[in-house]
Write a structure and sequence with these properties.
380 residues; alpha/beta; Rossmann fold; 2 domains; 29% helix; binds NADP nicotinamide-adenine-dinucleotide phosphate
Length: 380
Amino acid sequence: MTALPKTQQQLHSLVTDSGELQLSLVEVPLAAPGADEVVVRVEATPINPSDLGGLFAGASWADFTPTGTPGHPALTGQVPAAALPALRPRVGERLVVGNESAGVVVAAGSNPEAQHLLGKTVALTGGEMYQQYRTVKANDCLVLDAHSTPADGASSYVNPLTSQAMVEVMRLEGHKALVHTAAASNLGQMLNRICIADGVDLVNVVRSPEQVALLRAQGAKWVVDTSSADFDVELFAAISATGATLAFDAVGGGELASKLLTAMERAISATATEYSRYGSATHKQVYIYGGLDRSPTILHRAYGMSWGVNGWLLTPFLERAGEEIVGRMRNRVATELRTTFASHYTDVISLADMLDPEKIAVYAKFATGRKFLVNPALAN
Ligand SMILES: NC(=O)c1ccc[n+]([C@@H]2O[C@H](COP(=O)([O-])OP(=O)(O)OC[C@H]3O[C@@H](n4cnc5c(N)ncnc54)[C@H](OP(=O)(O)O)[C@@H]3O)[C@@H](O)[C@H]2O)c1
């Protein structure tokens, strides 16, 4: 086992009192692990939409100014004034962002469960992954099988658990089918595979013909395209056929959530035998779980009174769901990591590359199929 270096690089995200965002690559001391801890050399950590929320703090990446040197890249930007009050708790704090990762255990504390992990490839969650080494409790590591690489395990938590959680919510809340938006996403493709395997009807909502073709090639039965002139009609047909009354919406902005509720209500009314001026009594639910479109959510309320639009986040769901459900979901990730929950990456970059404006202009767009993986072990 190679000796642990005395220092390591971290990517810091700092918001100042005046609302300036400072991003920098910083050399910090690296401590030896405690008795029940291990040090993991991070070799693969994805850049997902939720990571950029923390990293860029709402600042517009197109306006970033390079302020570092080639050896020490840094960028500054400006957080919108309206966003600053919500960011108060992090003002002045140097945050290390990055939700999940995988890597190799290179140092371990004296406890047997920590020692047992030495040399193993493990997946991690819990944040602070955009750094070269991450120290965690031994018990918090998910040990990957001998055939899995760090890249295979980099996205073992957020998207695999969220996609499964959507089906769990459907069952727990008594719905019989699901609608999902931005459905050609990495997560959407996982959800499509789960629903096909589990026999759950899924209406995939995408925004281009290419995304329709991509999901159909992966066996999706219901795919509707917001760019189609007949979108409302096609959405109504798919929702009528499946009986979906639950949607997970990653877009969030604009009229999409409202259109989903409208189509659900119309589908229910089409077979109703009694009229009520309050609309159908069937509850229709949209969970906004992403913010791909930051514009206001517009609700036309043409769907009676039995509906809800709520925010939705994985972590509180896991806390509520209980051990049996969460255990089942984690086991499925472990056994289907390279099939149902496989993620594909088009680019592998270093920590310094994350601060390259040309690379940001690509990875911050979150285009379909263009997922970036960071390998902090790569030379800058
Ligand atoms: N709440 C939670 O707990 C939770 C957990 C995990 C993930 N998420 C959310 O899940 C979503 C998907 O994550 P991912 O990692 O799978 O994403 P991803 O692979 O990076 O894919 C993003 C997708 O969104 C589409 N898109 C981008 N902007 C859009 C817009 N304004 N309107 C419609 N579609 C748009 C892209 O299509 P184009 O190619 O057309 O741009 C692409 O298909 C994200 O919003 C993320 O924040 C939430």
